[in-house]
Amino acid sequence: MTWRIESVPYTDPRARALRRELDADLGARYDGFHGDEPEERRRARARALATHADQIVATLIALVGDAPAGHVIVRRLGDQWEVKRLIVLSAFRGRGIARGLMTAALEAARDDGADRVILQTGLQQPESMALYASMGFTRIPVYEPYVETMPRSVCFARDV
To answer: What pLDDT shows up at residue 34?
Structure first.
């Protein structure tokens, strides 16, 4: 079955549904990871992870037929470009969709003027880290806004 990537508005209902799927997946992966921490720190982490529509350079979804299969965002983070919210639904994995979404995200960042892209992930996402490494991303120190609330993040960068 073939797939394609479309650029959609951040508010596209299919994109929103895919982000909810990602939230559920990450919630399960990181359940208990942060231990018994104060509510203020949880709220600070939520603020660090939040993506605001005015930062968005591109919202891309992958479709298999008419079915939403994957999602990624490119946003401006200060003077940098960051890839966020990559997901491929489990039913559609193993088809190269994540690599396709990442390639399209890198192109969108470059088209917006980027010469480098950064991203943040975590130890509970080994398949993501393997994908990024295979695409030429290299590890970098944890960057803001994740330093305080997610110091164990795994961050990467790549020239585009």
So the answer is: 52
pLDDT tens readout for residues 76-125: 998 999 999 999 999 999 999 999 999 999 999 999 999 999 999 988 89
Tell me whether residue 45 is exposed, middle or buried, using C-beta atoms within 10 angstroms of its C-beta: 0 to 12, 13 to 18, 19 or more.
middle
Residue 9 burial by Cβ neighbours in a 10 Å radius (0-12, 13-18, 19+)? exposed
Q: How far apart are CA 61 and CA 8, in angstroms?
A: 7
Q: Are 49 and 30 in contact (CB under 8 A)?
A: no
Domain count, the chain: 1
Q: How many CA atoms lie within 13 A of 51 on its CB side?
A: 23
How many Cβ atoms from other residues are within 10 Å of residue 153's Cβ? 17
pLDDT band (50, 70, 90) for residue 136: very high
Cα–Cα distance measured from residue 32 to residue 14, given in angstroms and rounded to the nearest whole number:
29
**Structural domain harbouring 142:** 3-159
CATH number, domain of 42, equals 3.40.630.30
DSSP character at residue 131: H
The answer to pTM > 0.85 is yes
